Amino acid sequence: MIGTFFNHELKAFWRSKNTGKSIGVKVVMGILLLLLFSYVLIFGLFLDKILGKVLPDSDLTVTFCGIILIYFLIDLLLRLQLQELPTLKVQPYLHLPVRRNSIVGYLALTALLSFFNLWPIVLFTPFILKVILPAAGAISAIAFIISIIGLSVFNNYLAMYIKRKANLNGWVFLIAAAVLILIMLGDFMWHIYSVRNISYLFFGNLIVKPYLVLLPILLGVAMYWLNFLYLKENLYLEELGSQKASAYKSSTEIPVLSRFGIVGDLAANEIKLILRNKRSRSTLIIGLFFMFYGLIFYTQAAYGETIKIFVGMFMTGIFIINYGQFMYSWQSSHFDGILVSKINFTDFLKAKYLLFTIASTIAFILTTPYVYFGWRIIMIHFIMYLWNLGINITIVLFFANRNYKRIDLSKGAAMNWEGVGATQLLLSLPLIALPYLVYLPFKYAGYPNLGFAAIAVVAIIFILTRNFWIKKLEEDFYSKRFKIAEGFRNK
């Protein structure tokens, strides 16, 4: 039956109207993957020499055993961000005499067809054959390889399980990513424990006790079985829909947003869209990583205050920039429904302003630890936070009326140029240039503080006149709404 499913998938691919484009994309991606694998293979072949250079005073085997668990923690984090969920159009088979176990088994087994599962084998096997095999024998070397395969399978199905749960509750994804990051910080920043010692505790003993290979095998099998049961329980669309309905609260029950009425309801719906879908969720996660952007500039005295304007704007407005550049493409799949709905577009725009205001406020709060480098940096951050709320949101929504490219929300952000066009390039110019047009005349006149004050005054004026700009954006939208809708229909 699995062969039949695979055959149907091939026929669906070849009969698709976008087959030519899909083949071109797959060929390019295949070449990139082969190039990437060649780099990984070369790195694996010279891993013993690299480890010897990096840690010359440590035993090579001890060092190797210590990094394996670190690799798989990073691997899991990358899988959560990049690995695709295997899919099958289940509906046509539900009314046929096809066993549920066959459908679920196909979905579970095709999850193994990921390049993430080959990376550790290609990376670690050369070291095992060059170092572990001569020193400990064939049995220990085989135990190492099987353990690495077992942990790869465990990571594969754990990532699949987390992402499937995240489809019902977006907070699951954020919590899982936060836990992984905290585990790494607990070792490398706070030094509460040592992941390397824990890794060596298992793999060091694996050399003399090859039967310990049963542990990663059991972990892999257990996680496969957990995925199998979860898919089987949620195979039918009505069952999955009922769980979604119970997992999410209505937006009126969100204390922060309920006070804004329909605007808060629309903002809450967009928050759910962000957390439920892979592309938008990837944008959110990438934005959180950019909170460390200031460490590049604030730790070096060579950078003056001029560059801090960009850094402050970028960190406090990263969500506006990353997410806003694809506005309204996030709603491209149901944009026609928005046009014919009873939603007042003024409320729709106000919801965007509210969403961006909340995100930018959170980003500003997250950047407050940069006070370590001086209170003046926080002052610049606050001024650029006001600039983002007043001007950058308006600029982003203005360019949104000129973005006609749709986005598939189920795809990740990495190596994905869907929705990218000339609009994004043009958008970056005013975002970067406008604050400097206000600041630099005062700086070159010898009054940099007045320059910062001028930025703040302009930002506050735009915030106070927000309703005027919303009305102008609404008029602009109505003149272009049919062209936007037509662009979103083109797949």
UniProtKB/TrEMBL annotation:
UniProt keyword terms in alphabetical order: Membrane, Transmembrane, Transmembrane helix
Family matches, as Pfam families: DUF5687 (PF18940)
Transmembrane segments: 23-47, 59-82, 103-129, 135-159, 171-193, 213-231, 282-303, 309-330, 351-372, 378-400, 420-439, 445-464
InterPro entries reported for this sequence: DUF5687
Protein name: Uncharacterized protein
